[in-house]
Amino acid sequence: MTATNLAVASGPEIRGRSLWADARTRFFRNKAAVTSLVIFVLIVFACYVVPYLGLRAPDDLGNYESWGAPDLESGYLLGTDANGRDLFVRTLYGGQISLLVGFTATMVSLVIGVIWGATAGFIGGRVDGFMMRIVDILYSMPFIFFVILLMVFFGRNIILLFVAIGAVEWLTMARIVRGQVMSLRRQEFIEACLSLGLSRRRIILRHMIPNVLGPIAVYTTLTIPAVMLLEAFLSFLGLGVQPPMSSWGLLIKEGAEMMEEAPWLLIYPGLLFSLTLFSLNFLGDGLRDALDPKASKD
Fold this sequence. Notes:
The chain contains 13 helices and no strands. It has about 300 residues and is mostly helical. It has one domain (about 20-55, about 75-295): Orthogonal Bundle (MetI-like fold). α3 (about 30-50) crosses α4 and α4 (about 85-125) packs parallel to α8 (about 170-185). It is globular.
């Protein structure tokens, strides 16, 4: 063995970096995305932890049928509503419902859209054509009216709200996953799976879907704010969350009705809602840039 070969053999081992490790590095270099992630985590913590740290109950009446402006001395940081209830506490409790609707409905749309799109893209042919025509038909329907019809026929409850919103938000996810799966269908590792006699179900669940997690993760972070905005719109129309429960959309509706007399009832829930939507959108943009394969060549 020559000295050169000996030096190479005894040198430090060079380990490669995975795609996910590179994506994580690029993500944490994105200051806007990291800041948005921190803000979103703080909002979630405030909504789900702070209300249980000895604050007033959301239905605790102060001065009945009277509202008050924000006052630090009295302990009402964001003021009170028309019934004397602490707006700060109600906003945090309303955030629990809005975030729960956003995440739950997004998970419903995620499951339906990923399975539908992966199945259509992998099988192809007439099955793909039939499944995607169903998607096109549903796309042509105004989904707001579809959700409203579901709420009218089956009643207004929080579980139906999750299912109704999730059932109309999976269409774009299905198209994205179908396109990704069709590009992977002719790859060597899929042909190897077919030559080994693996079932279609196992190939889709064990090999196709894990390889499209990047676009799925990006679109998921962008679907959550869209779902929250839809829930706020329905609550604003009176078709979403019903009292005594509360959400940011319902609080914004109540604030809009008394905007001239008590503007803080609209400003503070609207600011927190907007901040959450902005942070989720910047987070989605950061994930998209981090998981972009072209970025790894920079």
